[in-house]
Amino acid sequence: MGVGHASVGFGLVIVLLWKTMGAAMDRELLIGHSMDLAAVEKALRRHVQVLTVEIGERSVLEPSGHARAARYIAETLQSAGLRVWEEPYPYGPITVANILAETGPENARRRYILGAHYDSLVGTVGADDNASAVAVLLETARTLQALEPTLPVSVQFAAFALEEPPAYGTRSMGSRVRARHAKRVGEHIDGMICLEMVGYTCREPGCQRYPFPLGFMNYPSTGDFIGIVGNFASRFLVRAMERSFKKNPSLPVITLTVPFNGWLIPTVRLSDHAPFWDAGFPAVMVTDSAFYRNPHYHTVHDTMDTLDFAFMARLVQSLVIFLGEPMV
Predict the structure, then answer these.
(1) pLDDT of the residue at 216
(2) Is 88 helix (H, G, I), strand (E, B) or coil?
(3) Is the same domain home to 8 and 127?
Protein backbone atom coordinates (compact mmCIF):
# COMPACT_ATOMS: atom_id res chain seq x y z
CA MET A 1 0.00 0.00 0.00
CA GLY A 2 1.37 3.44 -0.93
CA VAL A 3 1.85 6.31 1.47
CA GLY A 4 -1.24 8.15 0.22
CA HIS A 5 -3.48 5.11 0.61
CA ALA A 6 -2.00 4.39 4.04
CA SER A 7 -2.76 7.93 5.21
CA VAL A 8 -6.34 7.69 3.95
CA GLY A 9 -6.75 4.30 5.64
CA PHE A 10 -5.31 5.56 8.93
CA GLY A 11 -7.56 8.61 8.81
CA LEU A 12 -10.59 6.41 8.18
CA VAL A 13 -9.72 4.29 11.22
CA ILE A 14 -9.40 7.43 13.39
CA VAL A 15 -12.77 8.71 12.19
CA LEU A 16 -14.45 5.36 12.89
CA LEU A 17 -12.89 5.15 16.33
CA TRP A 18 -13.93 8.72 17.11
CA LYS A 19 -17.50 8.04 15.99
CA THR A 20 -17.64 4.83 18.05
CA MET A 21 -16.28 6.53 21.15
CA GLY A 22 -18.54 9.51 20.60
CA ALA A 23 -21.59 7.30 20.24
CA ALA A 24 -20.68 5.49 23.44
CA MET A 25 -20.25 8.80 25.29
CA ASP A 26 -23.53 10.11 23.86
CA ARG A 27 -25.31 6.94 24.95
CA GLU A 28 -23.94 7.12 28.50
CA LEU A 29 -24.79 10.80 28.88
CA LEU A 30 -28.23 10.25 27.35
CA ILE A 31 -28.91 7.46 29.83
CA GLY A 32 -28.27 9.74 32.79
CA HIS A 33 -29.47 13.10 31.56
CA SER A 34 -32.72 11.82 30.05
CA MET A 35 -33.89 10.43 33.40
CA ASP A 36 -37.17 11.75 34.79
CA LEU A 37 -35.77 13.00 38.08
CA ALA A 38 -39.20 14.00 39.38
CA ALA A 39 -40.39 10.42 38.94
CA VAL A 40 -37.22 9.08 40.57
CA GLU A 41 -37.69 11.46 43.51
CA LYS A 42 -41.30 10.31 43.92
CA ALA A 43 -40.22 6.66 43.94
CA LEU A 44 -37.47 7.38 46.48
CA ARG A 45 -40.02 9.00 48.79
CA ARG A 46 -42.25 5.97 48.50
CA HIS A 47 -39.44 3.56 49.41
CA VAL A 48 -38.40 5.61 52.44
CA GLN A 49 -42.04 6.00 53.49
CA VAL A 50 -42.50 2.23 53.49
CA LEU A 51 -39.25 1.49 55.28
CA THR A 52 -39.47 4.16 57.98
CA VAL A 53 -43.18 4.86 58.49
CA GLU A 54 -45.07 1.74 57.44
CA ILE A 55 -42.42 -0.68 58.72
CA GLY A 56 -40.52 1.50 61.18
CA GLU A 57 -37.70 0.03 63.22
CA ARG A 58 -35.76 -2.60 61.28
CA SER A 59 -33.21 -3.64 63.87
CA VAL A 60 -32.37 -7.28 64.49
CA LEU A 61 -34.02 -6.86 67.89
CA GLU A 62 -37.27 -6.08 66.04
CA PRO A 63 -37.32 -9.21 63.82
CA SER A 64 -40.79 -8.68 62.38
CA GLY A 65 -39.85 -5.23 61.04
CA HIS A 66 -36.51 -6.53 59.83
CA ALA A 67 -38.21 -9.37 57.94
CA ARG A 68 -40.81 -7.03 56.42
CA ALA A 69 -38.04 -4.80 55.12
CA ALA A 70 -36.32 -7.79 53.51
CA ARG A 71 -39.57 -8.81 51.82
CA TYR A 72 -40.22 -5.30 50.54
CA ILE A 73 -36.73 -5.08 49.03
CA ALA A 74 -37.03 -8.50 47.38
CA GLU A 75 -40.51 -7.80 45.99
CA THR A 76 -39.45 -4.37 44.66
CA LEU A 77 -36.45 -5.85 42.85
CA GLN A 78 -38.56 -8.71 41.48
CA SER A 79 -41.24 -6.32 40.21
CA ALA A 80 -38.50 -4.43 38.34
CA GLY A 81 -37.69 -7.66 36.49
CA LEU A 82 -34.51 -8.69 38.28
CA ARG A 83 -33.68 -12.21 39.37
CA VAL A 84 -33.62 -12.16 43.16
CA TRP A 85 -32.24 -14.64 45.67
CA GLU A 86 -31.30 -14.75 49.33
CA GLU A 87 -28.02 -15.34 51.13
CA PRO A 88 -29.32 -16.57 54.51
CA TYR A 89 -27.26 -17.00 57.67
CA PRO A 90 -27.98 -17.50 61.38
CA TYR A 91 -27.90 -14.74 63.95
CA GLY A 92 -28.54 -16.14 67.41
CA PRO A 93 -31.93 -17.89 67.40
CA ILE A 94 -33.09 -16.35 64.11
CA THR A 95 -32.10 -16.50 60.46
CA VAL A 96 -31.46 -13.32 58.53
CA ALA A 97 -30.59 -12.89 54.86
CA ASN A 98 -28.77 -10.63 52.47
CA ILE A 99 -31.11 -9.90 49.55
CA LEU A 100 -29.28 -10.20 46.22
CA ALA A 101 -30.21 -9.44 42.63
CA GLU A 102 -28.26 -9.03 39.42
CA THR A 103 -28.53 -7.36 36.03
CA GLY A 104 -26.31 -7.06 32.98
CA PRO A 105 -24.78 -9.58 30.59
CA GLU A 106 -23.28 -12.77 32.02
CA ASN A 107 -20.17 -12.30 29.86
CA ALA A 108 -19.60 -8.67 30.88
CA ARG A 109 -15.94 -7.73 31.21
CA ARG A 110 -16.61 -5.86 34.46
CA ARG A 111 -18.71 -6.76 37.47
CA TYR A 112 -19.71 -4.46 40.32
CA ILE A 113 -21.58 -4.86 43.58
CA LEU A 114 -23.84 -2.01 44.69
CA GLY A 115 -24.71 -2.55 48.34
CA ALA A 116 -26.51 -0.99 51.31
CA HIS A 117 -27.56 -2.32 54.73
CA TYR A 118 -31.29 -2.36 55.42
CA ASP A 119 -31.33 -2.68 59.20
CA SER A 120 -31.70 0.33 61.50
CA LEU A 121 -30.25 1.06 64.91
CA VAL A 122 -32.30 -0.23 67.85
CA GLY A 123 -35.02 2.27 68.72
CA THR A 124 -34.81 4.25 65.46
CA VAL A 125 -36.45 4.17 62.05
CA GLY A 126 -33.15 5.14 60.36
CA ALA A 127 -34.29 7.37 57.49
CA ASP A 128 -30.83 8.52 56.45
CA ASP A 129 -29.20 5.54 58.17
CA ASN A 130 -29.91 3.65 56.01
CA ALA A 131 -33.31 3.80 54.32
CA SER A 132 -31.96 6.58 52.06
CA ALA A 133 -29.31 4.22 50.71
CA VAL A 134 -31.72 1.31 50.25
CA ALA A 135 -34.06 3.60 48.30
CA VAL A 136 -31.21 4.75 46.04
CA LEU A 137 -30.15 1.11 45.53
CA LEU A 138 -33.69 0.11 44.51
CA GLU A 139 -34.11 2.97 42.03
CA THR A 140 -30.65 2.44 40.53
CA ALA A 141 -31.50 -1.24 40.10
CA ARG A 142 -34.84 -0.46 38.44
CA THR A 143 -33.24 2.01 36.01
CA LEU A 144 -30.33 -0.25 35.08
CA GLN A 145 -32.60 -3.26 34.61
CA ALA A 146 -34.52 -1.29 31.98
CA LEU A 147 -31.19 -0.84 30.17
CA GLU A 148 -30.16 -4.48 30.64
CA PRO A 149 -29.90 -5.48 26.95
CA THR A 150 -27.28 -2.78 26.34
CA LEU A 151 -25.70 -2.54 29.79
CA PRO A 152 -21.89 -2.84 29.44
CA VAL A 153 -21.32 -4.19 32.96
CA SER A 154 -22.83 -6.75 35.31
CA VAL A 155 -24.15 -5.33 38.57
CA GLN A 156 -25.09 -7.27 41.67
CA PHE A 157 -27.38 -5.42 44.06
CA ALA A 158 -26.84 -6.44 47.68
CA ALA A 159 -29.12 -5.38 50.53
CA PHE A 160 -27.15 -6.40 53.61
CA ALA A 161 -29.13 -7.78 56.56
CA LEU A 162 -27.05 -6.48 59.46
CA GLU A 163 -24.65 -3.60 59.90
CA GLU A 164 -25.79 -1.74 63.01
CA PRO A 165 -24.90 -2.72 66.60
CA PRO A 166 -24.97 -5.29 68.09
CA ALA A 167 -23.86 -6.97 64.85
CA TYR A 168 -21.43 -4.23 63.80
CA GLY A 169 -17.80 -5.37 63.69
CA THR A 170 -18.71 -9.05 64.05
CA ARG A 171 -18.75 -11.92 61.57
CA SER A 172 -22.53 -11.45 61.41
CA MET A 173 -22.41 -8.20 59.46
CA GLY A 174 -24.16 -8.90 56.18
CA SER A 175 -21.31 -7.39 54.17
CA ARG A 176 -18.79 -9.60 55.98
CA VAL A 177 -20.86 -12.66 55.08
CA ARG A 178 -21.04 -11.50 51.44
CA ALA A 179 -17.32 -10.60 51.16
CA ARG A 180 -16.25 -13.80 52.91
CA HIS A 181 -18.28 -15.94 50.51
CA ALA A 182 -17.07 -13.99 47.47
CA LYS A 183 -13.45 -14.52 48.45
CA ARG A 184 -13.97 -18.20 49.27
CA VAL A 185 -15.51 -19.03 45.87
CA GLY A 186 -13.30 -16.66 43.89
CA GLU A 187 -15.97 -14.27 42.65
CA HIS A 188 -14.75 -11.69 40.17
CA ILE A 189 -15.51 -8.22 41.57
CA ASP A 190 -14.08 -5.13 39.86
CA GLY A 191 -15.54 -2.85 42.48
CA MET A 192 -17.92 -2.80 45.44
CA ILE A 193 -19.89 0.43 45.88
CA CYS A 194 -21.27 0.86 49.40
CA LEU A 195 -24.15 3.31 49.86
CA GLU A 196 -24.08 4.63 53.43
CA MET A 197 -26.31 7.53 54.51
CA VAL A 198 -26.89 9.38 51.24
CA GLY A 199 -29.91 11.62 51.90
CA TYR A 200 -28.98 14.51 54.20
CA THR A 201 -27.74 17.92 53.10
CA CYS A 202 -26.93 21.16 54.92
CA ARG A 203 -26.09 24.51 53.40
CA GLU A 204 -25.13 26.74 56.30
CA PRO A 205 -21.39 27.53 56.32
CA GLY A 206 -19.71 25.39 58.97
CA CYS A 207 -22.42 22.71 59.06
CA GLN A 208 -20.10 20.20 57.39
CA ARG A 209 -17.35 18.72 59.57
CA TYR A 210 -14.53 16.25 58.88
CA PRO A 211 -12.44 13.72 60.80
CA PHE A 212 -8.94 14.73 61.87
CA PRO A 213 -6.81 15.77 60.00
CA LEU A 214 -9.14 16.42 57.04
CA GLY A 215 -10.58 19.50 58.73
CA PHE A 216 -7.31 21.30 57.98
CA MET A 217 -7.67 20.67 54.25
CA ASN A 218 -9.56 22.75 51.75
CA TYR A 219 -12.81 20.79 51.84
CA PRO A 220 -16.23 22.54 51.61
CA SER A 221 -17.79 23.93 54.79
CA THR A 222 -21.30 23.21 53.51
CA GLY A 223 -22.78 19.75 53.08
CA ASP A 224 -24.32 19.71 49.62
CA PHE A 225 -21.89 17.21 48.03
CA ILE A 226 -21.64 13.44 47.90
CA GLY A 227 -18.43 11.83 49.13
CA ILE A 228 -16.57 8.86 47.65
CA VAL A 229 -14.05 7.20 49.97
CA GLY A 230 -11.68 4.43 48.92
CA ASN A 231 -8.53 2.77 50.18
CA PHE A 232 -5.25 2.88 48.27
CA ALA A 233 -6.00 -0.40 46.49
CA SER A 234 -9.29 1.13 45.26
CA ARG A 235 -7.76 4.37 43.96
CA PHE A 236 -8.50 3.55 40.30
CA LEU A 237 -12.16 2.91 41.14
CA VAL A 238 -12.30 6.20 43.06
CA ARG A 239 -10.83 8.08 40.09
CA ALA A 240 -13.14 6.40 37.59
CA MET A 241 -16.22 7.22 39.66
CA GLU A 242 -15.06 10.79 40.22
CA ARG A 243 -14.60 11.35 36.47
CA SER A 244 -18.00 9.88 35.76
CA PHE A 245 -19.83 11.71 38.58
CA LYS A 246 -18.42 15.04 37.38
CA LYS A 247 -20.40 14.56 34.17
CA ASN A 248 -23.43 15.32 36.35
CA PRO A 249 -22.67 18.88 37.55
CA SER A 250 -25.91 19.05 39.53
CA LEU A 251 -24.32 16.77 42.16
CA PRO A 252 -20.93 17.98 43.48
CA VAL A 253 -18.56 15.16 44.40
CA ILE A 254 -15.62 15.07 46.81
CA THR A 255 -13.23 12.10 46.93
CA LEU A 256 -10.81 10.73 49.49
CA THR A 257 -8.28 7.92 49.19
CA VAL A 258 -6.87 6.59 52.46
CA PRO A 259 -3.81 4.38 53.13
CA PHE A 260 -3.61 1.28 55.35
CA ASN A 261 -7.25 0.27 54.71
CA GLY A 262 -8.39 3.35 56.59
CA TRP A 263 -6.99 2.41 60.01
CA LEU A 264 -5.34 5.84 60.40
CA ILE A 265 -8.81 7.45 60.21
CA PRO A 266 -10.97 4.69 61.71
CA THR A 267 -14.27 6.51 61.11
CA VAL A 268 -13.88 6.00 57.34
CA ARG A 269 -14.21 2.25 57.95
CA LEU A 270 -17.63 2.43 59.61
CA SER A 271 -19.70 0.75 56.91
CA ASP A 272 -20.07 -2.16 54.52
CA HIS A 273 -17.12 -1.33 52.26
CA ALA A 274 -14.56 -2.19 54.97
CA PRO A 275 -15.15 -5.98 54.85
CA PHE A 276 -14.45 -5.86 51.11
CA TRP A 277 -11.26 -3.86 51.71
CA ASP A 278 -10.20 -6.48 54.25
CA ALA A 279 -10.97 -9.29 51.78
CA GLY A 280 -8.80 -7.65 49.12
CA PHE A 281 -11.55 -6.33 46.82
CA PRO A 282 -11.64 -2.76 45.45
CA ALA A 283 -14.43 -0.94 47.28
CA VAL A 284 -15.66 2.57 47.95
CA MET A 285 -18.14 4.18 50.32
CA VAL A 286 -20.54 6.68 48.78
CA THR A 287 -21.89 8.86 51.59
CA ASP A 288 -23.25 12.18 52.80
CA SER A 289 -20.57 11.83 55.53
CA ALA A 290 -22.97 10.61 58.27
CA PHE A 291 -22.41 12.23 61.67
CA TYR A 292 -19.96 14.73 60.19
CA ARG A 293 -23.01 16.35 58.58
CA ASN A 294 -26.23 14.85 59.93
CA PRO A 295 -27.04 15.90 63.53
CA HIS A 296 -29.80 13.26 63.70
CA TYR A 297 -27.38 10.34 63.29
CA HIS A 298 -28.41 7.37 65.47
CA THR A 299 -31.28 9.26 67.11
CA VAL A 300 -35.07 9.07 66.94
CA HIS A 301 -34.95 12.30 64.93
CA ASP A 302 -33.50 10.53 61.88
CA THR A 303 -36.83 10.66 60.03
CA MET A 304 -37.81 11.05 56.40
CA ASP A 305 -38.83 14.70 56.75
CA THR A 306 -35.13 15.57 57.23
CA LEU A 307 -34.05 14.09 53.88
CA ASP A 308 -33.25 15.85 50.60
CA PHE A 309 -34.93 13.63 48.00
CA ALA A 310 -33.84 15.79 45.05
CA PHE A 311 -30.23 15.22 46.19
CA MET A 312 -30.88 11.47 46.34
CA ALA A 313 -32.41 11.47 42.85
CA ARG A 314 -29.29 13.14 41.47
CA LEU A 315 -27.20 10.43 43.11
CA VAL A 316 -29.24 7.78 41.29
CA GLN A 317 -28.53 9.72 38.10
CA SER A 318 -24.78 9.76 38.76
CA LEU A 319 -24.69 6.05 39.58
CA VAL A 320 -26.57 5.23 36.39
CA ILE A 321 -24.15 7.36 34.35
CA PHE A 322 -21.18 5.54 35.91
CA LEU A 323 -22.55 2.00 35.63
CA GLY A 324 -24.12 2.58 32.23
CA GLU A 325 -21.06 4.01 30.55
CA PRO A 326 -18.38 2.16 28.53
CA MET A 327 -15.39 0.56 30.18
CA VAL A 328 -13.21 2.99 32.13
Answers:
(1) 75
(2) strand
(3) no
Q: 113: exposed, middle or buried (C-beta count within 10 Å: 0-12, 13-18, 19+)?
A: buried
E strands in 182-244? 191-196, 226-231
Indicate the pTM of the whole model. 0.90
| Whether residue 53 sits in one domain with residue 15 | no
Checking DSSP bridges between strand 283-287 and strand 154-160, what pairing results, if any? Answer: unpaired
pLDDT in tens, 221-256: 999 999 999 999 999 999 999 999 999 999 999 999
Question: Which segments within 56-153 are labelled E, that is strand?
Answer: 83-91, 94-103, 111-117
Ranges of the chain whose pLDDT falls below 70: 1-33, 326-328
Q: Map residue 113 onto helix, strand or coil.
A: strand
Domain extent, residue 12, equals: 1-34
> Do 61 and 195 lie in a common domain?
yes
The pLDDT tens digits of the residues spanning 53-65 come to: 999 999 999 999 9
28 and 106, same domain (yes or no): no
Structural domain total, the chain: 2
Residues 194 and 302 in one domain: yes
CA distances from 328 to 1, 152, 236, 243, 285 (A): 35, 11, 9, 10, 19
